[in-house]
Amino acid sequence: MPRTFIDWLRRAPVRNAIDRQNAPTMQVLLAFNGATLALSWLWHLTAHEIPDEWRFVFAMDIVTIVVAFMGVALIRLGRFRVAVKLYLACLVASNFLTYRQLGASDMLMDQATMILILVVSGLVLGRRALWTAFGLVVAILVTGFVTDWRALPAGMAWNRTDLVNAPGLLLSYTVITLVLDRTVDALRRSLAQADARSRALRREVAQRERAQAQLIQSQKREATGRLAAGVAHDFGNLLNVIKGFTTQRDASATLSDAQHARAMEEALEGIEDVADRGIATTRKLLTFNREDELTLEWFDPGAVLQSLRPVLAQLFPPTVRLEIAAEPSPWRIHLDKNEFELMVLNIAANARDAMPEGGHFRIDAATSGEHRFEIRFADDGSGMDATTRDRVFQPFFSTKSPGQGTGLGLSVVHDLVTLAGGTIGLETAPGQGTCVRILLPAKRTTPDLPPSDARQAPSART
Fold first, then answer.
1. Would the keyword Protein transport be found if you checked this record's keyword annotation (predicted)?
2. What is the helix, strand, coil percentage profile of the chain, to 5?
3. Which tens digits make up the pLDDT trace of 326-365?
4. Structural domain spans, the chain
5. Is the CATH number 3.30.450.40 carried by domain 292-462?
6. Could you give the angle at the alpha carbon of 253 between the alpha carbons of 250 and 255, nearest 5°?
7. Which helix H or strand E contains 81, and what residues bound it?
8. Which letter does DSSP use for residue 392 in this model?
């Protein structure tokens, strides 16, 4: 309950930050002052009648009670400074009229109201309001002492009355005001510095947010560039295969009509197969703004490698002899089949580029130990030196001329093999060709393990 009440006090719609912090205290002060003043007079009224000379004070206090509760209502409406100024004006006017009517002597025992005027003026309204309030307090006291002096009986010396306390009282209020002035000034300076630091911090945060937004945009552009380069790389390989199939038109010119038709049918089937792979590649672009996914499944790598023979044959020129030593087997690996096929094409394309004058490309696939399947891609091309071999799996590293390579082929292969829990290595030397050796986890086909068990997994592609 107390916490709820404090939250209610803080919900006053005050714009100024400092005033908003002071609003709960002022609401409590105004309500407390109004309530205690009303209860005090109620106590007096139940005990005895109000003396005639105090009826004026009673009237002034009734006005103060009304203004105090009115001030609470004004703060709840967001009129904080209006409420405080109205309350202080009421206190000043009430005390001025009371001191003028009754004098200062009867009021010296209770100076709480005077001190309250100074404290609220200084802490809530500021230094200027503090010194204005000090001047008004001095005027009230002087007015009261003048009333006392005029009321002196004939022949009584003033220094035998309460007038003797006037200099000391004025000096005390001066000291109180000076202390409040210094305190308010230090507080206001601290608040100003804190506000300046807060604004500077907000500016810094805004700058950091802008910088972060720019970084995100830059990363998006970089990711888009990587994706475009990877897709372009894969499409380049697929288009080379399609181009190879189109050469069947010239190669079958000497064949009979039936043989020519059969050759064209096989070429079109090959082009259709490559086009399907191209469609699968375009899905990378369509899923770029979503979490890309690989469709993992258990499949026979030997059978897939054999099915790629026509495609690989079109990827290589006639000067390269292709050999695939892989047969269907009961062993299964767990990968995205489409990505596996593109991985083979990437390695084969690199081997083709390493043998511009022709050569020999061989694929061997067999089990290697328990639950491991090994695939070896060997060419007798130009090979690599140690520096190139150490960097060959880095994204965008390429030894080819600009426009001829993206540097993503082997990097993507490395990511896919690593994602599958496998390893990849190179055996190469300048002028002695290259052998890419891939080891993948494998399982033997059992009645409980169907050949195809597809599921979704996050992609390693970016």
1. no
2. 65, 15, 20
3. 888 899 999 988 889 888 988 988 898 889 889 999 999 9
4. 2-208, 292-462
5. no
6. 135
7. helix 80-102
8. T
